[in-house]
Specification:
Strand content: 15-25%
Largest sheet: 7 strands, mixed
CATH superfamily of one domain: UvrC, RNAse H endonuclease domain
CATH topology of one domain: Nucleotidyltransferase, domain 5
Distance between the termini: 68 Å
Shape: elongated
Structural class: alpha+beta
CATH class of one domain: Alpha Beta
CATH architecture of one domain: 2-Layer Sandwich
Number of helices: 20
């Protein structure tokens, strides 16, 4: 589709939340996306030159656009997820469905069996897992069978079959592993008490289960049923030993879901930790193959929706390292914790995601780079106390010659490495004389005002080459744009001190700190890039002939004069007749008139 065709089409696209779909000439679905504003989001693909070859190729293939309008951005997220899973478009991210992990399942039967399976079916059964460690799963299964004698046979135990088939108790009943409901020796209500307790145990509600068992022990003692009380006490001891072996991460967290995103190039992993009563009850890694230039917030939103749908889980509270652009749940708090037990949970989840990502990177050099850059950015986040990993950092530096020809350079680092295609240069026009503060304010305003207008992703950290004064000017510009939430950092050249907004004391990092070295590298790169452009401007200004200052004399006339006379001095020393022979009488008069004004009397 060409730009003219799109211009005719964009007026029919509403400015409402919805889902858009791109098709090629063969009616194959290329891409499914969601948007808060359909017209604005779709226009971004055609109005600007795409950064990556993959996006440019997709735009060239688009022949038809469809869209579906919904009420809210939340509805758009749900619809997008359904369409991606149904059609698997070529340019969308692919959520890997890992079917190698085992599950425990309570079958949807009159007397449910507890079994191990690797396939999740929508048959009304209750699934628990997946378990990344089969050893842990079988240990839990053995514990359940010691506590609750559930049946293991596959007999049809409907009421009619139990009454008419004449089943006989098997060996499992004789050794005490089953209460023989097939022979009518156990009622459905008694059996349901066992399955309800198993459900609580597999869901991780050990404290509720222990509390219920202790109440039953007291009731048995009250009616002098000491044998039953002794049996229940043995179950309590087994559960307490199992609880002691669980991965306890906190003593204060009751129920929490942690999600962490680790990304490298076109691969990503989202780790999910479900914590109940301070213990990790589930750890799951969702592998993601990225399509186009997906934003981390969009990846996180789709991953949370996929994981919760897969486990049929409704979170009560969510913490993460990347804020999702929208959530599929209503009134579920979600935040990026800065410290405390919840921050430790996010760090633990992020560590799991990084380890899984390293295993996905098959090439040794890719694995080494991912590990090194990820560790570096984690250290930067920790040293500077940033809300999230700074995968996108921008640094600014000004250059001038005694207040003239002021330029500013913006260098961009992605994943700890220079992204030279994103470098930008600014010729500052509102600055008069030597005024670094005004220069910083102007370049920050111009840079991020344009990014907001074009809907481009904002950086995770902004670095200013300068001290408190330059930092204050940058903060003023960000506040005026409504971007005061962006982390801002200044680096002073003399002592290599780091300044943060609102902190009167500079941050002095060790000279060998990887964080300081990265910021120094960015500062030096911005200085080099800006100085190179500044030198080019000075050289161009120095090469400008005095003939260029004469009003009415253009570049072509200057070229003729310099070719004929050799230099500007000889042009001004030539008489009127010589000038007329080269450029004509009208321009010759302009040159002689300019000479009379500039020659001192």
């Amino acid at each position: 589709m060409d730009l003219i065709g799109f211009k005719l089409l964009e007026y029919s696209i509403p400015e409402t939340p919805g889902v858009y779909r791109y098709y090629d000439r063969y009616e194959r679905l290329l891409y499914v996306g969601k948007a808060k504003n359909l017209r604005k989001r779709v226009s971004q693909y055609f109005a600007n030159q795409a950064d990556t070859h993959r996006i440019r190729l997709m735009v060239r293939l688009i022949e038809r656009i469809e869209f579906t309008v919904v009420d809210t951005e939340h509805d758009a997220l749900l619809l997008e997820n359904v369409l991606i899973k149904k059609h698997q478009p070529r340019y969308n991210i692919r959520l890997k469905d890992d079917k190698t992990y085992p599950f425990l399942v309570l079958r949807n039967e009159p007397f449910p069996r507890l079994e191990v399976t690797r396939q999740v079916r929508r048959d009304g059964s209750r699934y628990y897992g997946p378990y990344s460690s089969p050893t842990t799963m079988y240990t839990l299964l053995d514990l359940i069978r010691k506590l609750y004698p559930l049946r293991t046979c596959a007999l049809n135990l409907s009421e009619d079959r139990i009454a008419n088939a004449g089943y006989r108790p098997c060996l499992e009943h004789q050794i005490g592993n089953c209460m023989a409901p097939c022979a009518g020796l156990q009622s459905a209500q008694e059996y349901r008490c066992y399955t309800d307790a198993v459900h609580l145990l597999l869901k991780g509600n050990l404290r509720g289960l222990l509390l219920n068992l202790r109440k039953q022990i007291k009731a048995c003692v009250a009616r002098l049923d000491f044998e039953e009380a002794h049996t229940l006490k043995g179950q309590v001891e087994l559960l307490e030993r199992y609880e002691a072996r669980s991965t306890v991460v906190s003593t204060t967290i009751k129920e929490l879901d942690s999600f962490a995103l680790a990304q490298h190039q076109d691969r990503a992993v989202v780790n999910h930790l479900h914590v109940r009563n301070g213990a990790v009850m589930r750890s799951y890694n969702l592998e993601i193959q990225l399509g186009l230039e997906e934003e981390p917030s969009s990846i996180m939103a789709q991953a949370i929706l996929e994981i919760c749908n897969r486990f049929e889980h409704q979170p009560l509270e969510i913490v993460c390292n990347v804020m999702p652009e929208s959530l599929p749940f209503v009134r579920v708090p979600c935040k990026i914790p800065s410290d405390g037990e919840k921050r430790k949970m996010v760090d633990l989840s992020l560590k799991n995601a990084f380890f899984c990502l390293q295993e996905l990177l098959r090439k040794p050099e890719e694995r080494q780079f991912a590990s090194r850059s990820d560790r570096l950015l984690q250290q930067v986040q920790k040293d500077l106390q940033l809300p999230q990993i700074p995968q996108h950092i921008e640094c600014f530096d000004n250059s001038h010659t005694q207040g003239s020809q002021t330029v500013s350079a913006c260098v961009v680092f992605r994943n700890g490495r220079p992204s030279k295609r994103d470098y930008r240069l600014f010729n500052l026009c509102e600055v008069e004389g030597i005024d670094d503060f005004a220069g910083i304010e102007e370049v920050i305003t111009r840079r991020y005002q344009r990014m907001l207008e074009e809907g481009l992703p904002l950086p995770d950290l902004v670095v200013i080459d300068g001290g408190k004064g330059q930092l204050s000017s940058a903060q003023t510009a960000l506040v005026a744009l409504g971007l005061d939430h962006l982390p801002l950092l200044g680096i002073a050249k003399r002592l290599e001190a780091l300044f943060k907004v609102g902190d009167p004391h500079p941050l002095m990092l060790d000279k060998k700190s990887p964080t300081l070295r990265l910021i120094q590298q960015m500062r030096d790169e911005a200085h080099r890039f800006g100085l190179q452009h500044h030198r080019n401007r000075r050289q161009k200004a120095g090469m400008q002939s005095t003939l260029d200052t004469i009003k009415g004399i253009g570049p072509e006339t200057c070229r003729k004069l310099l070719t004929a006379f050799g230099s500007a001095e000889r042009v001004f020393s030539a008489d009127l007749h010589q000038l007329i022979a080269v450029v004509g009488s009208a321009k010759a008069v302009l040159i002689t008139g300019h000479r009379q004004k500039t020659v001192p009397k």
